[in-house]
């Protein structure tokens, strides 16, 4: 099988959000969409042997759900369906993604989230502690976006902590694959202590922005535009809320520097951003060769 985008599906609004967003990504990148339903592991105790009739019912139900999911995917997007058994939904997604050498795993927000905002559920939280491929979080309401809508801009929030270079490389590669603009948000002015003089903050912010833009431009092919803006605010949440966001935009953040190599763990900065972001978020895992950051 060729590499694709794995999307975890449940017969809920969150599942529809995930499939719609994953379809848009797959269409823009030219990837295959792998839609998967994960069922409870059928390895039970010998004391309570499995009920064959119930197992057949669950399998049939899963196949029906997958048919519902594929109906939401545009005809131009290649898709495959999978029924997997695992001890947890997240485990099933990670295992399949590893087998397929998938580029991303896409999941929806938890029930009860505000429209256009993120709310981490059990599956997303577990993925952010276990996945070794980037996880894409679809905010509530993503299902209402036309699945043929393109991805117009990739925004990466770049700070000064270890891992910024790796995040910049990932965001640049994603912008190229999507044919989207690249916007880099410098967080250096928010990172500085509140006691620092405002003049120093302005100078540091401008210097960091110039450095980030120079590195990004060096890795971009012709036809892909990049810009850098300096986030300003009294907090991460305040800075993010004052940024402009396009309907076809996605945000990219890195996993915490405390995460295990090639694993995800949402750092404090990314977690704060999550509550304010009105667009999908891509969380990038650390690599073995480079320390990860929380941007």
TrEMBL record:
Pfam families from the xrefs? Usp (PF00582)
* Annotated ranges, domain UspA: 5-138, 152-285
Q: Which family does it belong to?
A: Belongs to the universal stress protein A family.
PANTHER family named in the record: STRESS RESPONSE PROTEIN NHAX, UNIVERSAL STRESS PROTEIN UP12
Stated name of the protein: Universal stress protein
Q: Which organism is it from?
A: Microbacterium hominis
């Amino acid at each position: 099988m060729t590499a694709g985008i794995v999307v975890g599906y449940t017969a809920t609004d969150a599942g529809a959000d995930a499939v719609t967003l994953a379809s848009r990504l797959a269409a823009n990148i030219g990837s295959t969409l792998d839609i998967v339903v994960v069922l409870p592991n059928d390895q039970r105790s010998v004391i309570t042997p499995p009920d064959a009739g119930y197992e057949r019912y669950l399998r049939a139900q899963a196949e029906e759900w997958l048919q519902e999911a594929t109906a939401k995917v545009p005809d131009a997007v290649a898709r495959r369906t999978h029924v997997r058994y695992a001890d947890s939904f997240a485990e099933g997604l990670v295992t399949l993604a590893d087998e397929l050498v998938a580029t991303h795993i896409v999941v929806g927000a938890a029930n009860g989230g505000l429209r256009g905002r993120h709310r981490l559920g059990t599956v997303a939280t577990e993925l952010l502690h276990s996945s070794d491929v980037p996880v894409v979080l679809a905010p509530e309401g993503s299902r209402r976006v036309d699945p043929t809508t393109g991805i117009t801009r990739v925004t990466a929030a770049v700070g000064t902590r270890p891992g910024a270079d790796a995040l910049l490389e990932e965001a640049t590669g994603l912008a190229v694959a999507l044919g989207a603009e690249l916007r880099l948000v410098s967080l250096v002015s928010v990172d500085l202590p509140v006691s620092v003089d405002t003049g120093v903050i302005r100078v540091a912010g401008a210097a960091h922005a110039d450095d980030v833009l120079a590195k990004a431009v060096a890795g971009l092919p012709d036809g892909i535009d990049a810009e850098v803006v300096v986030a300003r605010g009294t907090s991460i949440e305040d800075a993010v809320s004052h940024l402009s966001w396009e309907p076809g935009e996605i945000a990219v953040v890195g996993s915490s520097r405390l995460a295990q190599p090639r694993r995800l763990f949402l750092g404090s900065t990314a977690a704060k951003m999550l509550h304010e972001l009105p667009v999908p978020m891509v969380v990038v895992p650390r690599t073995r060769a480079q320390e990860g950051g929380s941007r």
